[in-house]
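Supplementary notes for students who missed Thursday's class. We covered one full example, reproduced here. Read the sequence, then the structure, then the short commentary at the end.
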Amino acid sequence: MERMTIGRLADAAGVNVETIRFYERSDLLERPRRPPSGYRTYDPGVVERIRFIRHAQELGFSLAEIRELLSLRVDPSSSCGQVKARAVAKIADVEEKIDTLRRMRAALITISDACSGEGPTTDCPILDAFGRADGGRADRSNDSERSNVMARFKEGERYRCPEPACGCEIEVKRGAPETCAGDFPPRCCCGRDMVPAD
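Structure (token representation):
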């Protein structure tokens, strides 16, 4: 098959020329030697390698991790188990990021709910929350609020987030539910109050 210029390679792989050069500088692609004609050309098989790199990036793998995957791919002594171990580790990394994003969302809901959207910025509770040590999470653990919560939540029962897309569920223990957001009154990590599970 005819070798390709960098421009044709970029078009075939669905990337721009600078992306190919970046992959070369990152040791993900081998940079071909410049022939006497002055134009470097690439084997058509490089198209598939570029697609591999792009798809791995889209799934959250770092460039260093992609280099490892590419090495495993051509190493006859490597196994699928080694590749799966890296995929499982990436799943755990993604889940940790999801938990972080849910906590961020819950905090944003809390401070947004506290703002009426009216008045000067000097009195804005959102801006004020950013400067507080608690990040805007109000202390909701006083006795009166705890009593209200205990009237709603019974030990041994299960509660869930009312948002179907969230899917969080908890069980009340020792008279108080264990929540993924760690707040009191209990809230889901997405910021919504839990409701009794069906």
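Commentary. Residues 164 and 190 are 11 Å apart (CA to CA). The first helix runs from residue 6 to 13. If anything here is unclear, bring it to office hours.
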